[in-house]
Amino acid sequence: MGDHKLSRVVLGIVGGVVALSALVPALKLSGLLIFDGQMLHGRGAWGYRLQWGLAFLLTGLFEESLLRGYLQSTLTRGIGFWEAALLLSIGFGAFHLPNQGESPIAILSVVGIGLMFCLSLWLTKSLYWAVGLHAGWDWAQSYLYGVSNSGQVSVGHLFATHPSGRLIWSGGPTGPEGSIYVIPVMAVIALGVWIAWSQSARPKEPATILAARP
Q1: Does residue 52 fall inside a structural domain?
Q2: Largest CA distance in the chain
Q3: Domain count along the chain
């Protein structure tokens, strides 16, 4: 992977961790998320940190390559970029419906995240940033803060937490993605994507993806 591609992935990972690290303290300060203490120390912490990092990097690579890579490229040729983006983002949300504890806000946030990834694809013509953010966001949820990720708490997390208060505010068993607080966080990320890359995107470039690659 070239330096430019690697920097996009790293930028995405940092962005995902920072975004979750803004959402989780906001829930904590509002009394909607209770920290129960640190669960891992020393070697155990490092082992799970690396394992979950690799697992979520592969997850981000697979899901983004499938949904925002091959399928986005194929559908764009037939119905247009943003029509395909909306269809696949709704499909991305539907893919999460069987997960235990998913809520309407969580599904809406997944659709919004899918569209945000499509915006980054539109502007940068690559999936590297989206892969990184996908991985960083999931890693921060599942390992770093030990919150539910799509209704599931992962084995081997640094901190233990539990939600408190009304479902719409705390996210409940869904995790922070089920909290209404996630909406302004996503809006800030999308705005940052636009500010960072809209000026460098070529305005007259056709809205087609020439290669289905991450």
Answers
A1: yes
A2: 53
A3: 1
Please indicate, yes or no, if residue 154 is contained in any of the structural domains.
yes
Assign residue 7 a region (left: φ > 0; alpha: ψ between -120 and 50; beta: otherwise): alpha
Coil, strand or helix at 152: strand
Dihedral pair phi/psi, residue 159, rounded to 5°: -110, 155
Phi/psi of residue 125, nearest 5 degrees: 60, 30
Q: Which domain holds residue 76?
A: 38-197
Evaluated on CA atoms 87, 93, 15, 62, the torsion sign reads: negative
Type of residue found at 212: A
Token look-up 């705390």 returns: 170
Give the model confidence (pLDDT) of 138-191 as tens digits: 999 999 999 988 777 888 899 999 999 888 999 888 889 889 999 999 999 999
Residue with tokens 């960083």: 136
Q: Is residue 92 part of a domain?
A: yes
Output the CA–CA distances (angstroms, integers) from residue 150 to 19, 30, 70, 75, 178, in the order listed.
Answer: 17, 21, 25, 27, 8
Q: Where does residue 180 rank: exposed (0-12), middle (13-18), buried (19+ CB within 10 A)?
A: middle
Structure tokens at 45: 């912490």
Can you list the residues of the chain whose pLDDT is less than 70? 1-3, 100-101, 201-214
Cβ neighbors of 49 (< 8 A, separation 6 or more) are 143, 158
